[in-house]
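Database export, one record per block. Field names are fixed; values are copied verbatim from the stored entry.
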Amino acid sequence: MESSRSPRSGRRHSLLRAAAVTLSLATAASLAGCASADTNTRSSSGQSAFKPVTQKEGSRITVWADSTRLPSVQAYEKSHPDVKMKIVTYDGGADGSTYLKSKVQLFDRTGSGWPDVVFGTPTDVTWASEATKPGARPFAAPLDEKLVPRSTLDGFAKGSLTPCEFNDHTYCMRNDIAQVLLWYNKPLMDKWGYKVPTTWQEYEALGKRVAKDHPGYLVGSVGDTNSHESYFWSGQCPAFSLTKPDTLRTDLQDPKCTRMAKLLDNLISAKAVATQGFFSQGFAKNSGSKVLMAYGPSWYGQYLFKAGFKTPAKQIAAAPPLTWKGESTAATGNVGGGVWMVSSHSTNLKASTDLVTWLTTSDENQASAPTYPAYSRAAKAWLANPANRDYFANDVSEPFEQAANEVWTGWSNTRFSDSTAWSSVVLPALTSGKSLTETLPAWQQEIADEARTQGYKVVDQ
């Protein structure tokens, strides 16, 4: 649907569909759909042949946004009446949609129709930074080529622009991130005399103790379509690591994969970690009140505990990401986050880049955004907003900011979703009673097969 001044809301993007979460596996995938992968390996060429098309100062720009980001685009339009805009609502890449790619391929064939600005997923950048056919211009413009100041790009959380970077250039600006951290029920932890864990070893030991002392209470779940991003990505497991732009390393027998699988298997056996997903049907009603801890993204607080489990205010607290005892390097995963791209075909690059910069970096927009901004200064404004902090039992600012700068950049942004193999192979295996450890080879094979269909060379060392 589209309009010039009064766009109507379409289906929202995959990160957050609405202020309330409908608990289902489909919603879990929706909430984290942007997170299929968060990093990539950059080539060493460093050369850009980008030459803008003929510019037409003051020309109208066409903006494609999902329904969640639609109000932000409308707010910019209202506060910048001198900018001529046509706004189109579309799915924004939700649930692995290839709508944008298909449309760009069509526009490349017909020679017209490209939007000036689009909201999408990190996966979209993998194809948008390259030509869809010989002789075509890559859809995304390299923003570091005199379009966005380096000082602005340097203001994003550490590593958050990595999924935007190909061939040593930056092709998008990150809208939001979903850094993984530890959530816990503070009143219950205090009542039972439990200390909040800081290491994975402490987390495992506490989970076993909880299972023994308080049967039925949980410290996590591995049953959602994004659970692997919380655990295996945080554990620095090289399931999706690009060693070259066209070569994927997937080695689930790496010690960093097997130790996480073993830890989770132990907690699953103790019935402290559920194989039923947090977002699966019936979980909220039957077990939502018995989640003592959860290892997951920054949106869990508002959209899982508050909206999903209906946990009362001042009970849920956040702690920094866990580390492995004896290891000094902290790392965590990411379960969400969209991007804004400017089209290389835009005849008004100034207006297009001004819009994208405002959307991603301005306090005016990001302080009231539904999820945690990737731009560090805007994130502080977001954290200062009472709507984003008053629900919690502690000040979440420090753990949120720490986790935002500890997302591991070794889990690569690929041309395919990292959730497909987990959902099609691992989740059914867990349901049938198999362990994660014994399922690792089948998970790796599925990843490798999918990667090869997307043109990657696959290695395991």
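Remark 1: The CA atoms of residues 207 and 272 lie 6 Å apart.
Remark 2: Confidence is low (pLDDT under 50) at residues 1-46.
End of record.
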